[in-house]
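Hello forum,

I keep getting stuck at the same step: I have a sequence, I want structure tokens, and every attempt I make locally crashes halfway through. Rather than fight my setup again tonight, could one of you with a working pipeline run this one for me? It's a single chain of 426 residues.
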Amino acid sequence: MHGKQQFENLISHSFSGTATIALALAMVFTLTVLLNQSAQAQTLPADGSWTEKVLHSFNGTDGSVPDAGLIFDTAGNLYGTTYYGGTYDYGTVFELTRSHDTAHGGWTEKVLHSFNGADGGNLFGGLILDAAGNLYGTGNAGGFGFGTVFELTRSPNTAGGGWTEKVLHSFNGTDGAVPDAALIFDAAGNLYGTTTYGGGLGNVFELTPAAGGGWTEKVLYNVGNVPFGGLIFDSAGNLYGTTYYGGTYGHGAVFELTPVADGSWTEEVLYSFHNNDADGAGPYPTLIFDAAGNLYGTTYNGGFYGYGTVFELMPAAGGGWTEKVLHSFNGTDGAYLFGGLIFDAAGNLYGTTVVGGSHGYGTVFELTPAAGGNWTEKVLYSFHNNGTDGAEPGWASLIFDAAGNLYGTTLDGGTYGYGTVFEITP
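Reply #2:
Ran it on my machine without issues. Output:
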């Protein structure tokens, strides 16, 4: 499995400088054990499941290890990134366009840019679009060797409708290193993101368009403790995120950054994870809000069975926040969560797990609110990794289309073993 080997390299990279080699090897060993448990895995009920369809299998030259989520443009085209592959093996930005080519799942893939290392590369985070249709993202490679923020602009005069890449900022280590998560815009068009390392184990930064072109970077706060995930704004302009480590008990935290009149930002830790039977550990992805202002997220491990959780944080009367675990995964319904969550219009939550499920290669799940404040979990699909199906979808969040179908990526599997883009249809 080509993607599996690259995944092990990815794990080693992701934890360099913050965790011991023993921890990285333990994670890979645990993953391998789970993948080999497919014969013993409990088969979940088939009723109410969804139908999965692979839209594209990566072949290495067009990308490899698509570990980030997807986005739609207004025309219904999908965009995403790969960590490896492409012309120089530093990863790609790709587009999937609906076609009548049923032999390839009805979608045509096009590589918009192959990174060469100097202009960035090794993309772990997803993309965002601005109003003009330009794409923005981050790469772990390039610049001074500590990662970059880049922009892809459509080039109407280029034969075939090409794209031009521009590096907006190169990190130098002191202002951050290894930007792993997708960016966000504020209303003024400024970009915000996180770096996993650099400046003391991770920063929150802002990029502001400068007069005459170019962008100016400013470190807003050194949150430390490896903020793998991205950021979200509330309506008041405060930023929220997670750290994989740190907090009171060392198992990760949820934080809020509040702007101050003098241009600085203050940090408040909203919750520290315990990693006991009832609580999770290692919150990795970007959080989401519901309409009432509650926060939702996932933890990589912890919970009652040690395989990860879905949690909710609720503002408490008089200040502070209260945490509630909505679901603890047990392995047969999925294990280990690196991806975030999304809501549907009815208030149900959807997400993915890296491994586990009926065949051991990861799941797509749904959480539905139940009576008494509880939630009911249902596995919508368990990946097979049978040559045409994907494997390990739990690194990225899902997205919906207007018809209610779900789209995502798998880090491994597919026809060539380099990962897939898939659709799940109810």
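The two ends are 29 Å apart (CA to CA). If your local run keeps crashing, start a new thread with the error log.
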